[in-house]
Amino acid sequence: MGRSVLVTGGNRGIGRAIAEAFREAGDDVAITYRSGEPPEGFLAVRCDVTDADAVEAAFTEIEGHQGPVEVLVANAGITRDTLLLRMSDDDWSSVLETNLTGTFRVTKRAAKGMLRLRRGRIILISSVVGLLGSAGQVNYAASKAGLVGLARSLARELGSRSITTNVVAPGFVETEMTAVLPEEKKAEYKAQIPLGRYASVEEVASVVQWLASEGAAYVTGAVIPVDGGLGMGH
């Protein structure tokens, strides 16, 4: 029997690869998306994680279709990059509201069902930027760093009910976003990475899948970098 899995922001990029990996393993996979057309083969629920009522409605639909969420992958996020002195209050608040507060909302709602089941896996998708920092991304870096504190606090709160909470921190990944970078910028970034290349979305997905497996049952509160050595775990 497959588990009930939810991947937020699962319509493209890393989120889609994660959703596809769980589906191929035989799990029942739901995804949330905010805009565009969702991929076929999933229970796709339109949901803006900045809207508490939308999050509640999404979980109600998902639970009715495939039961309580047993594996949550909180992946939904946005960027509003600009230098600090040019960053507006809205640039700051919209990124924090989506990436950090939105993750708080979905984890809180998922935890209700997991506590009743007395088991569950929560995996938050952060970024190497949250650990290293990045000029022009103070809002994004702050939101992604906040996920580490969130996860480690949840690990302490929920661990006694066999619920693990971990963080995956990808580095540069081959996605539509990185594909449009100028070649000289790509070369500059790759020169900083010990492995000399970007990650594939599948490589990130495989780490997420492992954290949700029986083999990772004793791993909680961890931050796992998938960055080719860029951050060296810091």
Structure notes:
- With 234 residues, the chain is an alpha/beta fold.
- The chain has a single domain (4-172, 201-224), classed as Rossmann fold (3-Layer(aba) Sandwich), CATH 3.40.50.720.
- 45% of the residues lie in helices and 16% in strands.
- The chain is built from eight helices and seven strands.
- It has helices at 13-24, 52-66, 89-117, 129-132, 138-158, 176-179, 183-191, 201-211; strands at residues 4-8, 28-33, 43-46, 71-74, 120-125, 163-170, 223-226.
- The protein has a seven-stranded parallel sheet, sandwiched between helices.
- The longest helix is centred in the middle third of the chain and has 29 residues, at 89-117.
- The mean pLDDT is 95.
In short:
This protein is 45% helix and 16% strand.
Furnish the topology, listing elements before pairings.
Elements: E1 4-8, H1 13-24, E2 28-33, E3 43-46, H2 52-66, E4 71-74, H3 89-117, E5 120-125, H4 129-132, H5 138-158, E6 163-170, H6 176-179, H7 183-191, H8 201-211, E7 223-226
Helix pairs in contact: 1-8, 2-3, 3-5
